[in-house]
Each structure stands twice: as structure tokens, then as C-alpha cells.
Design goal:
343 residues; alpha+beta; Ribosomal Protein S5, domain 2; Alpha-Beta Plaits; 2 domains; nine-stranded mixed sheet; four-stranded antiparallel sheet; 27% strand
């Protein structure tokens, strides 16, 4: 809702009172790592992923004190007078970009951070979308939103930041993403028959295995190895799995996903130390013994959720194994970051 005030004979656009965004988390099937700039700028890259019905919500509202910025995110509360005092680098960059004050920003999440679902980029996208709408700026396209988020994350320190998470959070849905050498991203929606999509969804299990999350350290090591040329061959093999899965999905041959996940995971473990360990390897081995045909740890690795593909006939056997863990119940989500409320 756009409110207009009259001051000194001039009509002035003012901000909304409150805006709430809902931004989905993503699960990546294959191709991860090729979205790092150190790889795609020389080789190109590609990923297949989907968003799910677990979200980060960001509330942006007027603060009572017009000279104060109030922030509530994760377990942190900040009350500051200037954006330069903000501890969170992403929030600092976004608030600086939009030059806002007298605002309160609150975020809440369906899933803990550090679980391999792209939470950092989901938060960045949701916050950008909320503040842009709060300021009554021109609506951003999905590509603009993703690009802004990637630039902000890239410029918050010497961190290796991929592109798949920002694009997934902005676009939403089951998509093929192609990362071109010039930095552009091609996005293709993977249109499946409803019965194929439902069967695919029903054969996927997400098991929470906990652990210590060090995604930036893992990604930094991957990027350094790529620059040295030591990871390029295996990363290319991971990329080569993407068109195989894409064709299989269009053909309705969803069981191929298990084989692709298994190959992807075995290749991924070679890309950096810390992606897996003895405990995670043991969990994976037991899952295969109980009927899964493949899986992978989501995100950079080291912690979070294992995603497993389990053919329908093996569900009962697999669930005897999975009952020992927290299993996330989820559905696919077709939308990206969305404004769900504004006044």
C-alpha cells in the first residue's frame, strides 16, 4: 500500500508501515560446486535444485524511535543508531544500500542455520525483498534480486560464495541453472507431469545428522583447489551428471536420481576436507543397506541434512533406519521469495 503525504506543497512517497516476506530453502540434487566463480568463469557450470516448503520470514516495520535501527535475527538483538554499528555484515550492506533508519527488522526461520539448505542466501534474499518493498522501490526481478544478493554476500569478506542458493531462493521451484563463463545465469523450469513430481517428492527423505557447520571454510578450500587445477576433473564429472538427471526426469525415470546422488556424493567428498567424516560415512553406508539407492549431504558438507532417494518398494525398510533420526517432512515449493503481507 502506497501512502502519500503533503509537505511544503509537494507530494512525497513514504514507506510502508510493515512488510513481511517468505523465502524458501532449497535442496540441491547435483552440480554443486560448479556455481563457484573460480570454476564457472573457466568451465561454465550447472545445477539442478528445488525449493521446499520451509521458509525464512523477514518482517520490516517502522520503529517507534525514528533515529534507531532495531534488529532481531537468529539469537541476536541489536539496537543501534547508525548502520556502521551493525554486527551482521549482510544486514549492514543492505541497510547501507537502501539508506534507511527508524526501522525494525525481524527474521524467523522454520529450520536452524547451518543445515545445508542455503540459509545465508535465503536470509539475504528475503531481507532484500522486504526492505525494497518497505521503501516502495520499483519491484526487483528475480534476476536482479539474485544478483544483488550474490554481490552483497561476495563483498562481506574474503569468502567463496556460489550462485545457486541466491537464484534458487529468488526463482523458486524445480529448476535447471546454468552458470555461464561471463557470469550470467540461465534459468530453466523443469516441467514434470504431476504424478511424476509427486512420486519424486515421496521418494525423498531428509535426515538431520547435526554436526559442526563450516561451509565457508569448505568452499574456500574447494575454490583454492580449483584454481590450482586439482579439483577440476572431479568437478566436471559432477557437472556431467546434471544433463543425465535432467533427461531422466523429463522421461519420468525418477529412480535415476538415486544413482546420480550416489555418484555426486562420492565425487563431492574428494573436493575438500571436512565434507564428510567417519560418522557421516557410516550413516550413509547404513542408509544404503536399508534401501536407499543414493544420497548426499546437502550444502557444502560436514553437517546438516542428508538427502536420500528411496524407491517406493523400500520405504518400509528405510523407515526402520530413519526412525533413529529427526526426519524433516517437506513438500516442493514452486515460488521464490514472496511478499506475503504489507500495510
Amino acid at each position: 500500500m502506497l501512502r502519500i503525504s503533503l509537505r511544503g506543497g509537494r507530494l512525497l512517497n513514504t514507506t510502508n508501515n510493515i512488510v513481511i516476506t517468505r523465502t524458501p530453502f532449497r535442496i540441491s540434487f547435483c552440480g554443486g560446486g560448479s556455481d563457484l566463480e573460480s570454476y564457472y568463469e573457466n568451465n561454465g557450470g550447472c545445477v539442478i535444485s528445488t525449493t521446499i516448503n520451509k521458509y525464512i520470514y523477514v518482517i520490516c516495520k517502522k520503529n517507534f524511535d525514528e533515529d534507531e535501527i532495531k534488529l532481531k535475527y537468529l539469537d541476536n538483538i541489536e539496537n543501534i543508531a547508525r548502520y556502521k554499528e551493525i554486527n551482521n555484515d549482510i544486514l549492514k550492506k543492505i541497510i547501507e544500500k537502501y539508506n534507511i533508519h527508524g526501522v525494525e527488522i525481524i527474521s524467523t526461520s522454520d529450520v536452524p542455520k547451518g543445515t545445508g539448505l542455503g540459509s545465508s542466501s535465503t536470509f539475504t534474499i528475503g531481507t532484500l525483498n522486504a526492505i525494497n518493498e518497505y521503501k516502495n522501490e520499483k519491484k526487483l526481478t528475480c534476476t536482479q534480486l539474485a544478483n544483488y544478493a550474490w554481490q552483497i554476500e561476495k563483498n562481506t569478506g574474503n569468502k567463496s560464495v556460489g550462485k545457486q542458493d541466491q537464484w534458487a531462493a529468488a526463482f523458486g521451484g524445480l529448476k535447471y541453472y546454468q552458470f555461464n563463463k561471463d557470469g550470467s545465469v540461465y534459468v530453466e523450469k523443469i516441467e514434470l507431469k504431476p504424478e511424476t513430481l509427486e512420486a519424486l517428492q515421496n521418494n525423498l527423505y531428509m535426515i538431520y545428522v547435526g554436526g559442526e557447520h563450516k561451509s565457508y571454510e569448505i568452499l574456500d578450500e574447494q575454490a583454492k583447489r580449483i584454481k590450482k587445477g586439482t579439483n577440476v576433473e572431479n568437478q566436471q564429472k559432477i557437472c556431467d551428471l546434471v544433463p543425465v538427471l535432467k533427461k531422466a526426469l523429463y522421461d519420468g525415470n525418477i529412480d535415476v536420481l538415486g544413482e546420480v546422488l550416489n555418484q555426486n556424493w562420492n565425487l563431492k567428498k574428494s573436493l575438500a576436507s571436512g565434507i564428510s567424516n567417519d560418522r557421516l560415512d557410516d550413516i550413509y553406508k547404513k542408509a544404503l543397506e536399508k534401501g536407499a539407492t543414493g544420497g548426499k549431504l546437502l550444502g557444502a558438507g560436514g553437517s546438516g541434512f542428508f538427502l536420500f532417494y528411496v524407491p517406493r518398494q523400500n520405504h518400509k525398510q528405510f523407515e526402520e533406519f530413519s526412525q533413529n533420526y529427526k526426519v524433516l517432512d517437506f513438500k516442493f515449493e514452486d515460488e521464490g521469495s514472496t511478499i506475503i503481507y504489507k500495510v
